[in-house]
Design goal:
The structure holds two protein chains of two kinds.
Chain A lengths: L32 E6 L8 E8 L9 E8 L7 H12 L18 E4 L2 E4 L12 E4 L6 E3 L2 E2 L2 H9 L19 H5 L12 H4 L2 H6 L6 H11 L7 H8 L13 H5 L6 H16 L1
Parallel strand pairs in A: 1-3, 2-6
Antiparallel strand pairs in A: 2-3, 4-5, 4-6, 7-8
Helix pairs in contact in A: 6-9
Chain B lengths: L1 H8 L15 H32 L1 H12 L1 H28 L6 H27 L1
Classes of the chains: A alpha/beta, B mainly alpha.
């Protein structure tokens, strides 16, 4: 089906997951085991089943999938509401990040029914039954739905995401025209939720050296900024078979961005800048 | 700090990725492009065998043509034809991307489905033409 914006759900997909063994490329400690079931209260008439990835570091046991049955008549409309309800009323040990509950902070990014999105802006009505919830992909898990993002933030720091100038600082702000400012539209809005990077197959295979879509979009944000004077230096740092060029234009990033941004295009523009300065 | 250091050394599980991520037109066509490329590389060996057989005489050529005409050979030829047209059409899509064009999500999907349709039609046309 024709997808026009990233908030559209896949209505008909042949497969819900790739036909690979569940243990494909999975080290023994990461293998997922069956977990507990928490049935809905007996009086509940409209229920929803959530299957949630759980990992307890203190237990010394493998991750597991717990099943929670929720009374929909006693729950808010969003998936995050259901997770908060589980934490408040069913299992207080369930751990996840959340803050703004309106899609501007990026904390509650997780893998929902097989694609990455923010739990606070995904309605329960849009989710499948049962709803499958995993942490963001291919990251070390701290606890339950909280992945360790240290590596991703280190990659972000590697592109030096700040204004770099050689000219002496003016007595006021560095100005830019409205047209130059418009060049940053679609790039400055990134909330660093890392839905795209953790949904990128190239980053799954080469997360140690490929920077990934979120960080490369940020890198382009500074390349596109008329006030920045380090464009050549920034391009030098990206000119690498892995850092930039492991992007094979799969475009899972653009498909999944909860803010509707286009990391794939930012990367293509960066590759074009590389070519232009060579000719 | 001590506890933080201890945690850092604990073997943490890695969250699943390809095992759970939903196949989408974006990733399926990309994986397909890679697979078709691998298949075509293998096919080029078969093409070389066919050329060598043709150069070494009627008997060798007839033996290879028997293989090509066998049910398995015919199925392989069909798969290779599809792989060739798919790789060609998706390659053209990549050329536009290299010019930083066609990155709106709607265009990504429209061009993706166009590649699927065009490669099927071209494969059927080629086989229709070959069989007539």
């Amino acid at each position: 089906m024709l997808i026009k914006s990233s908030n559209q759900l896949p209505r008909h997909t042949l497969l819900k997951r790739f036909p690979v063994p569940r243990r494909f490329k999975t080290p023994p400690a990461s293998r997922i085991e069956p977990g507990k079931t928490w049935p809905a209260p007996p009086k509940a008439t409209r229920t929803k089943t959530l299957r949630v990835y759980r990992y307890e570091p203190e237990s010394g046991r493998n991750p597991r999938i717990d099943t929670f049955e929720i009374d929909l008549d006693d729950c808010g409309p969003m998936l995050l509401d259901a997770l908060i309800k589980i934490k408040n009323e069913i299992d207080p040990t369930l751990t996840f990040r959340r803050s703004c509950r309106e899609g501007v902070c990026g904390s509650c990014a997780m893998n929902i029914d097989g694609t990455n999105w923010l739990a606070c802006i995904r309605t329960l009505a849009e989710t499948e039954s049962p709803t499958l919830i995993y942490p963001l992909n291919n990251l070390p898990v701290v606890k339950d739905l909280v992945p360790d993002q240290t590596h991703l933030w280190a990659q972000y720091e590697a592109v030096e995401p700040w204004l770099k100038t050689d000219t002496p600082a003016p007595s006021r702000e560095r100005l830019q025209t409205q047209e130059d400012r418009a060049e940053l539209d679609g790039y400055y809005e990134c909330i660093m939720c890392f839905c795209c990077t953790s949904g990128c197959p190239s980053h799954w295979w080469n997360s140690d050296r490929f920077l990934g879509p979120a960080v490369l979009l940020q890198a382009y944000r500074w390349l596109a900024d008329s006030r920045d004077e380090a464009t050549g230096e920034r391009l030098d740092a990206l000119e690498d078979p892995f850092r930039l060029y492991r992007c094979h234009t799969i475009l899972n990033c653009t498909r999944t961005c909860p803010k509707g941004l286009n990391p794939g295009k930012a990367i293509a523009e960066t590759k074009r800048l590389m070519l232009e300065r060579r000719s | 700090m001590a506890s933080a250091r201890k945690l850092a050394h604990d073997p943490r599980p890695r969250s699943p990725h390809v095992q759970v991520y939903r196949p989408q037109l974006t990733s399926v066509l990309s994986f397909g492009h890679r697979l078709a490329g691998i298949g075509l590389s293998l096919g080029s060996i078969a093409l070389a065998v066919w050329l060598i057989a043709a150069a070494s005489g009627a008997q060798a050529y007839a033996r290879v043509m028997d293989l090509v005409g066998s049910p398995v050979g015919t199925a392989l030829m069909f798969v290779w034809t599809y792989a060739l047209f798919f790789h060609l059409c998706n390659g053209i899509r990549h050329l536009f991307w290299d010019r930083a064009q066609g990155f709106e999500l709607r265009t990504i999907y429209a061009s993706g489905w166009a590649v699927v349709a065009a490669s099927v039609v071209l494969t059927l046309l080629a086989w229709g033409w070959a069989l007539v």
